[in-house]
């Protein structure tokens, strides 16, 4: 760890990771300090330094969502960058980044349990961009996952015809064959004109 944090600050972080709704009075008690302002100041400092944030997470199992891990290998740096940028814009993606090894991209995403995995792997998202994928591997996370909660950011639904990644749903074979419900950011994925 590059940042040196005192024991009380680390304990504060652990408490908030367990329960982000704890009051500063409760946090001060857990830290063994008398003033709630001490806990508040420590959290403010962490946030200002960009080291920590408190936010809500979603129980994927109870929301009836599948969590998938997708590993991709691309042919070129240009393809790598296009794929990664496309996935980073996808509302279903929880995390995406580069890796070193056989695969050069990883994606953690959610899909509705009724959607096949293919909708996010082979869908329209890359067809329009001429991106070539050398190899892919998909893992579906089991229902006994731990932790059960994920930082899923549900999209703001818009009236656009293009998804945030730039793809269109209305001409995607997965949507047309009712194998996918379309991008969750679109109010009507079948819509062809704004």
Characteristic terms for this protein:
194 residues; two-stranded antiparallel sheet; four-stranded antiparallel sheet; 30% helix; alpha+beta; 7 helices; elongated; Alpha-Beta Plaits
Query: What's the gyration radius in Å?
Result: 20 Å
Strand content: 15-25%
Q: Name the CATH superfamily classification of the largest domain.
A: Lrp/AsnC effector binding domain/regulation of amino acid metabolism (RAM) domain
Count of DSSP-assigned helices = 7
Mean pLDDT score: 84
CATH class of the largest domain: Alpha Beta
Provide the spatial order of strands within the biggest beta sheet: 3-4-2-5
Q: Give me the CATH fold name of the largest domain.
A: Alpha-Beta Plaits
User: Span between N and C termini?
Assistant: 49 Å
- How many structural domains does the protein architecture include? 2
Instruction: Give the % helix.
Output: 25-40%
Structural class: alpha+beta
Low-confidence stretches: none
Largest sheet: 4 strands, antiparallel
């Amino acid at each position: 760890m590059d940042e040196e944090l005192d024991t009380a600050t680390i304990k504060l972080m652990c408490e908030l990771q367990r329960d982000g709704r704890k009051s500063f009075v409760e946090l001060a008690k857990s830290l063994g300090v008398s003033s709630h302002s001490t806990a508040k100041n420590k959290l403010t400092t962490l946030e200002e330094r960009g080291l920590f944030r408190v936010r809500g997470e979603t129980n994927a199992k109870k929301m009836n969502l599948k969590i998938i891990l997708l590993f991709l290998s691309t042919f070129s740096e240009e393809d790598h960058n296009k794929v990664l940028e496309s996935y980073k814009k996808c509302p279903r993606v929880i995390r995406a980044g580069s890796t070193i090894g056989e695969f050069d991209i990883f994606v953690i995403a959610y899909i509705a349990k009724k959607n096949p995995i293919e909708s996010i792997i082979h869908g329209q998202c890359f067809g329009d961009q001429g991106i070539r994928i050398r190899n892919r591997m998909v893992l579906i996370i089991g229902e006994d996952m731990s932790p059960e909660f994920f930082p899923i950011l549900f999209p703001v639904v818009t009236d656009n015809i293009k998804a945030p990644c730039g793809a269109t749903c209305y001409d995607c074979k997965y949507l047309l064959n009712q194998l996918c419900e379309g991008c969750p950011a679109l109010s009507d994925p079948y819509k062809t004109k704004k």
